[in-house]
Structure formats: C-alpha cells, structure tokens
C-alpha cells in the first residue's frame, strides 16, 4: 500500500476561472487573477488545482464550447500567463489539471466550420450527421433523426439548411458532438492532449467522457409523461465503444507519464459497476470518475428543476453503495459541489445565520472522511451559499435560461420556474468568489459579469482566515488530516445507524487504527444510540465543529451520545 498512487491522499480544488479573481477590472476572472491568489490555496493545503476551461471559446456555455484546443481565451489571458500560473503552482508543490471537453467542440471551431461549409471535406465526418427521419422533409416537425432531447432543452438535433442534414448536439446548438467513430478525431484529440502534457500540465478532468460513444443506429428513446423529447441516454451513456476509446487514450497519452498524472472522468449516469471497470487499474482507463447518483437524490418527478427534500437515508444508502462497490477495485471521487450544482450548505445544510457555519462544516466532515479523493469547489471552503437571484435577468447560465424559455413557452408558471432555478440552477455556484468585505467582494474593480452575493459583507475569505472557528479552517484541518492519518485514505468504510434520518455515522478501520465519524445533519439536538458508544469514551477527538473542553467525549457511560445541532466529530482510537 505504500506504493499507492499519490492522488489517493490528495485533495483537489476546482477553480471556475471566470468567477475566481479578476486582475484587470473587466469583470471577468482570469489567469493572472488566479496566480495572484495562490496564497489562499496554499493556506488551505490542497494538492491539485483543476481549472474549468480557459481555451478560446464563444462562451455559449462558459468555455465548455471550445473553438481552439491549444490556446487561451483573451478574456482569461495568454499562453504566457498560463505558463506563469503553471510555474507558480508547481513552485508551491501543487499540481494543475486541465478541463478536457472533447465530447463536443464549439460550432465556431475551424473543424466544424469546415464540416458545415464544405460537406465534401473530410472534416464533415468529424461530427455526427444524419438525414431527416424517413418519410419526413428536412425541417418538418418530427423530422429529427431521433427523438433525443438535449441537456439544455429542445431537440438534440439541429438542421443544417444548406445540406438538409441534421447534426447532433447533446448540449447546446453551439456544441456539436464530435464523431469518435472516426479515427482521425481520436488522433487529433490525443495529439492535443500530448501538447498540453509537454507544456507541463498534470492531468485532465474529462468532461462528459462517458458520452463519447453513441449507438450508431440512433434509436428513439423512451418519452416520459408530458415530455417533449425522448431520453437518448440508454444509447449514449457508457456507449458501445467507450472502454475501447478510453483504453486507447490511456495507451496513446497517459501511459508515457505513469506517475505524474491525475485523470478523472466526469460521467453522468454511470453505475457503480461501470465505474469499477473504468477505474480498475488493471484495465488502464482513468484513475477515478465523477458519479452523479448523490446529486440526483433531490430531483423530483418533474426533473432537476422540480426539486424535493433530500432524505438522509437515501444519501447514506447511495454513498455507502459506492464506498463498497469501489472498496476492492477502483477508486472514488468525493464531491458536494462544482460549477453545475447549487451550493451544498443551501442544498443539504442550512444557510441561515444560526446554522450556516456548523452545517457547512458538518457536511464537509462527512464527505472528507469517506474513502476517495475529495474535490473542493471554490467558495465551498468558505461555506458560500446560493445566490438571491431576484429575476430571470439575474441568471447567465444557458441551461437555466433555455429551461426558463421552454417551460414558460409551454405554459408553466414563471414564478414557479424561477423557484426551481433558484434552488438548483447552476449560477448559484458561479457568483464571484468572496475574498473580502469591499465592493464586489474583492473579486473585481469593475462590473462583475454576474452579481456578487450581497452576503460577502460578512461571508468572505479575509474574515475566515482570521477566525480559527471558520469554515475555512475546518476545511484546512480536514485536508491536513487526510495528509497525516492513513486511516482516512485507506481505512475500510462501515456505515452505522443506517436507518437514522438525522445522524450520519460511520467508521474507518485501517490496521490498528479506527476512526469514528459522527454528524448530526439536523438543526435539533439528537441522541445517537451507537452500538459501541462506551468503547469510544476515551477516544481522541481529531476534528470537531463545536468548541468542547477536554480531549474526551463528554458523555456518560452507558448513555447514548448527545449531539448538538449540526455537530460533527471525528474520533480516533488505536
Ligand atoms: O448540469 C447539468 C445539466 O442538467 C448536467 O447534466 C451537466 O450538463 C453534466 O453534468 C455535464 O456537465 C459538463 O458538461 C457540460 C457543461 O455544461 C458542464 O458545465 C460540464 O460540467 C457540457 O460541456
Ligand atoms: Ca479579467
């Protein structure tokens, strides 16, 4: 176990560059802004930075629509700025991982321009083209080659008037899917990745990488009650050639750097069984995957924008299944937040003044004590909250804007649609990083591209660095614990109190060490009838979120443990 890969004991920090730090006052975060804020990340103690896309892009989906894979968008800076950032990150002993978006390009990428402009060019086949459905004329309602809906509302097919053919776009119309069946596409992607590795980057977070292989028959998918489009996911989630493509990528790109890299596949809809195949080191595909089960548990019958309250037992059941499923083979990624999810303290915690700090720290404790590699999304380490968006004009995200337009056009109540966006919309995670209490939270001297959360006056990094009881210092301690206690990295996971709707409890056992993680994920006092409460009586308290006198649990032998609102603790016995 001593020869385990370095990333098993690492913590990754995700930067959404547009919203992190603006160095030139244009209201958009940029690379020099990041370089100027590395002290914050060193103080937190993270090992790896993952940058959301900074390549040239029309920014239809905030950079997830790439028009040049080997450059930097002028809004973010230059390749020189990038090299400078990379050197500064390395000088601090951290690594840098790029976002790799190769399921699709921008429709403004030269490859797609050529494919559209010259249907006879070899580039045509780099994308997915199909004629209208038999018996239909191009452009007629229902003429789309399949009934698949796009992730961003509407059909997944867009008509190209000039040729009368449709191209596939699982995301926006400006994000045409690449045709991975074509070996030239795969070779171009490999070459581009090798170019970044030569430049010195330390790996890739691979966007929707389990969607790149499609069933070439493009069959219609099931249509849910009242849905305008079918669900094509059975025909593109972990499609027929996905493992072949990833093994080829490993051979062609990753294999030359056996120790250095971190590769993580973002995989909507992936099952535990598939994830084990993807991350089995013997199969040489990726190091770990992002799975989505736990962030779908509060989606309601009407989909993600129709959220329902989370049942804690559902969360525990799900995460435990993933812990067990990847215990012997493979590896987990652990996350609550990223740029696509609402803020966890608002979603699963309580972001009101009474409980914000303790619910944020309790949730952090639960996540970081699981087995796997934790990811911290910018601002999560401050307990940043969802944003008080007043009206649709406050939103910027294409998914939210498209959903609103489609839902309202279909007759939905606008206020109700807005309520869904406020609860679950991706812009909640995209408001600027809250550095200090000054105007625009110290993010920019100009006008920010999206509103700053007004709570930055009291919720900001400067205040939290100065306060040992802050969310920031709690995250710092959790990260340090992973670096120093092998049981956090390697320990076997066992869930306790599986039926409890308020308490999250588990142990991690490694050689002679056992950790107990106990969290009250509710705003009321709770009693924990732990199977072996007395056995933990004199255990060492490692990370807690309430100041308690003494080093031992203050509980009476033979009595259940009492946990205060949102109290969490990590205990160790040997
Ligand atoms: O938020 C979602 C839409 O409901 C997710 O399904 C999301 O689209 C999915 O997780 C894939 O996300 C990734 O690829 C998208 C991009 O918009 C996201 O920001 C990115 O993380 C397309 O590139
Ligand atoms: Ca800027």
UniProtKB/TrEMBL annotation:
SUPFAM superfamilies noted in UniProt: (Trans)glycosidases, Glycosyl hydrolase domain
Sorted UniProt keywords: Glycosidase, Hydrolase
Pfam families: Alpha-amylase, SusG_C
InterPro entries named among the record's database cross-references: GH (IPR017853), GH13_cat_dom (IPR006047), Glyco_hydro_b (IPR013780), O16G_dom_2 (IPR045857), SusG-like_C (IPR056300)
Domain Glycosyl hydrolase family 13 catalytic: 14-430
Family, per entry: Belongs to the glycosyl hydrolase 13 family.
UniProt cross-references to NCBIfam families, sorted A to Z: PRK10933.1 (NF008183)
Record PANTHER family: ALPHA-AMYLASE FAMILY MEMBER, OLIGO-1,6-GLUCOSIDASE 1
Name of the featured protein: Oligo-1,6-glucosidase
Gene: malL
């Amino acid at each position: 176990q001593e020869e385990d890969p370095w990333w098993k004991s690492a913590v990754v920090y995700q930067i959404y560059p547009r919203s992190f730090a603006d160095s030139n006052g244009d209201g958009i975060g940029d690379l020099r802004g990041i370089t100027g804020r590395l002290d914050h990340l060193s103080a937190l103690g993270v090992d790896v930075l993952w940058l959301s896309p900074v390549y040239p892009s029309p920014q239809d989906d905030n950079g997830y629509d790439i028009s040049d894979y080997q450059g930097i968008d002028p809004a973010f800076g230059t390749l020189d700025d990038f090299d400078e950032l990379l050197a500064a990150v390395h000088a601090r002993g951290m690594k840098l991982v790029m976002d790799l978006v190769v399921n699709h390009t921008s429709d403004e990428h030269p490859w797609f321009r050529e494919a559209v402009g010259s249907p006879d060019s070899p580039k045509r086949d780099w994308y997915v083209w199909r004629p209208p459905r038999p018996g239909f004329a191009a452009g007629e309602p229902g003429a789309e080659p399949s009934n698949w809906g796009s992730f961003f509302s509407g059909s997944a097919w867009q008509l190209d008037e000039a040729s009368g053919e449709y191209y596939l776009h699982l995301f926006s119309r400006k994000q045409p899917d690449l045709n991975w069946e074509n070996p030239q596409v795969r070779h171009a992607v490999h070459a581009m990745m090798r170019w970044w590795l030569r430049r010195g980057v330390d790996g890739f977070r691979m966007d929707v990488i389990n969607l790149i292989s499609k069933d070439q028959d493009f069959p219609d998918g099931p249509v849910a009650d009242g849905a305008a489009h079918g669900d094509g996911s059975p025909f593109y989630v972990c499609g027929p050639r996905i493992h072949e493509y990833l093994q080829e990528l490993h051979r062609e790109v990753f294999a030359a750097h056996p120790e250095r890299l971190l590769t993580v596949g973002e995989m909507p809809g992936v099952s535990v069984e598939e994830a084990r195949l993807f991350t089995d080191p013997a199969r040489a595909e990726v190091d770990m995957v992002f799975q989505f089960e736990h962030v779908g548990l509060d989606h309601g019958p009407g989909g993600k924008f129709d959220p329902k309250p989370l049942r804690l037992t559902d969360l525990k059941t799900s995460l435990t299944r993933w812990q067990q499923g990847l215990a012997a083979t493979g590896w987990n990624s652990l996350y609550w937040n990223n740029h696509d999810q609402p803020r966890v303290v608002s979603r699963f915690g309580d972001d009101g003044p009474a409980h914000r700090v303790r619910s944020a720290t309790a949730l952090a404790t639960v996540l970081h004590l699981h087995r796997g590699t934790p990811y911290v999304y910018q601002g999560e380490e401050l307990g940043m909250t969802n944003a008080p968006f007043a009206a649709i004009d406050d939103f910027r995200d294409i998914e939210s804007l498209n959903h609103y337009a489609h839902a309202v056009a279909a007759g939905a109540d606008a206020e109700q649609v807005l309520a869904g966006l406020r609860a679950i919309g991706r812009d909640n995670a995209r408001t600027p990083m809250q550095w200090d209490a000054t105007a625009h939270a110290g993010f920019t001297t100009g006008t920010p591209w999206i509103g700053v959360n007004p709570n930055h006056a009291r919720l900001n990094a400067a205040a939290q660095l100065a306060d040992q009881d802050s969310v920031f210092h709690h995250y710092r301690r959790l990260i340090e614990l992973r670096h120093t206690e092998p049981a956090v990295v390697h320990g076997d996971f066992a869930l306790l109190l599986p039926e409890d709707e308020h308490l999250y409890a588990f142990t991690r056992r490694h050689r002679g060490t056992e950790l107990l993680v106990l969290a009250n994920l509710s705003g009321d006092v709770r009693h924990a009838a732990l199977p072996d409460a007395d056995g933990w009586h004199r255990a060492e308290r490692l990370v807690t979120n309430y100041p308690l006198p003494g080093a031992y649990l203050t509980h009476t032998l033979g009595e259940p443990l009492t946990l205060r609102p949102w109290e969490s603790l990590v205990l160790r016995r040997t």
